[in-house]
Specification:
- The chain is an alpha/beta fold and about 280 residues long.
- The protein contains 11 helices and 7 strands.
- It has helices at about 5-15, 35-45, 60-80, 85-90, 95-110, 115-135, 145-160, 195-200, 220-225, 230-250, 275-280; strands at about 25-30, 50-55, 80-85, 140, 185, 260, 265.
- The strands form 2 sheets. A 5-stranded parallel beta sheet has the order 3-2-1-4-5, sandwiched between helices. A two-stranded antiparallel ribbon has the order 6-7.
- β4, α7 (about 145-160) and β5 (about 185) form a beta-alpha-beta unit.
- Bound molecules: adenosine monophosphate and zinc ion.
Length: about 280
Amino acid sequence: MELEQKVESKIKQTLKKIDLNKNTGKILVALSGGKDSSAVVYVLHKLGYKIEGFHIDLKIGKYSERCLEKVKELCNDLGIRLHIYDMKKEMGSGMCYLRTAIQSNYKENKKGQLKNCAICGVIKKWVLNREARKTKGIKYIATGHNLDDECQTFLLNIFKGSPNLSANSGPITRNLADRKFTPRIKPLFYVAEEDVLAYAKKERLPFNPEKCPCALDSYRIQLRAFLNTLSKKDKENIIKNFNKLYKKIERLKDKRLNYCEMCGEPARKNICKKCELLSV
Ligand code: AMP
Ligand code: ZN
């Protein structure tokens, strides 16, 4: 099978598995400017889904400028609406400044060390959920997480001693339905990273090939290097095993969703992770 057909049919199967069709509702595609989310928006558009794009301008110097440029180019080519969230305007500072402030407060309060990607991930998720809810007609958020990302997360959760954290994961978030929570879908859940890259190149999609300059210290990067010594088949098997294990850990997933006492957003505890980070 041709690469194009292979990638698109895996995405179609995934969408079918999670019961998503063209009439299920509008999808807000979280666009980073990288190959994965560019491929997602391109394929969803090709398949006729109702979509809009959403980009968080993290203000990480020239890197962010180049990401924004690619996202604009792609949405323009596809003729879809793009929402841009400017971190400096909305939160008072860009990701680098905000992250450094959080890290030094954590250190001062002897709360340990926080990795760059962990902080950025929490803030991006918070922004995405809140803005998706504010955007008229949006039923789902789509992200570009691929098979390799999901293998890493699954293993990371095991290595951190919390395999139960994977209970909310999958091609669609398995949180309980909640008026404040927009379900997140991952159309590339079963597509390997190397295939996404080849697809994005073949279709000549605009994307920024650079890695985020702040992603330096992550445990995930070490795991990624290890996983890259395995074959694609091995990685597919890890995800198959995740699906088997999921049936056993399903009962461990969050039964209840609280609302953060500080910002009102959905939270596992009384205070959401983003407010916890910013209030230390
Ligand atoms: P990452 O956590 O950077 O690996 O990104 C995973 C997914 O999150 C991407 O495929 C996008 O769908 C989304 N994402 C990451 N960064 C941004 C951003 N700056 N703006 C919007 N969505 C993003
Ligand atoms: Zn909060």
